[in-house]
Amino acid sequence: MKKPEPRVALVHDFLLDLRGAERVFLALCDLFPDADIFTAVYDPVGTEGRFADRRIHTSFLQKLRPDATSFRRLLPLYPYAMEALDLSGYDLVLSSSSAWAHGVLPSEDAVHVCYCHNPFRYAWNAREATLCARGPVMRAALGIVLQRWRQWDWIAAQRTEFGVDLGGANSIDGLRALWRGLLKSNAASVASLRPIIVVKERNNGLGMQLRLVAGPLSDAAATAPITCAMT
Fold it and tell me: Which of these, 80, 99, 105, 229, is most buried using a 10 Å CB contact count?
């Protein structure tokens, strides 16, 4: 009897326009054409119809119809909106996160792999600049919100799985060949892991590349023995 295909869910923070993170997410969508898409809010016009043929599930914030110019008014609510998305029944969850997508709550037996473009900049590296641009009253209130975001961000990060980058190739077939070779040469290190294809921007910023990542691993330290075995 043929084993059923795993159910895959693709998650992105919000789909309101087409910028760098959304273009990376489009590449993930091309790799998983049958996967369902989950996002906090979605604007088919702002995304130029690029997701029109996909099954898109949105959060309770969709009722407010935010767009690329108004969505920031709802910033305190997005973490809770992501946690409220129903991902039950999916075997693999791939989140594309520059803010909150990594905070979704998959089923206990699902694998969650996060492609983190960057941590939520308003709460981390751009925190001081964000606060300095506000008046005294707003600065105090926003400081409390940003501190809560930091706490939530750290907790959410603990719920995702870690993986080890095993190398790249120019095609899906090339990645499959790479995985088969690793199973022969480093079976003890990688046989218990699941291979995942990741789309990554090239170091020079020109185009995308395909990488083979294997997991899940309990934490970043668990990748070290595998990396050593491959060198």
Answer: 99
- How far is Cα 21 from Cα 27, in angstroms, rounded to an integer? 10
Start-end of H helices in the chain = 20-31, 78-83, 127-132, 136-157, 172-185, 187-190, 223-230
pLDDT digits over 16-56, tens only?
Answer: 999 988 998 998 899 899 999 999 999 999 999 999 999 99
Q: Can the peptide bond before residue 66 be classed as cis, meaning omega within 30 degrees of 0?
A: no
pLDDT of residue 1: 59
Residue 124, Cβ neighbours under 10 Å: how many? 13
What does the DSSP 8-state code read for residue 203? T
To the question of pTM greater than 0.85 for the whole model, the response is no
Asked if 37 and 53 touch (Cβ cutoff 8 Å), the reply is: no
Q: List C-alpha distances in Å: 105 to 22, 29, 88.
A: 21, 20, 9
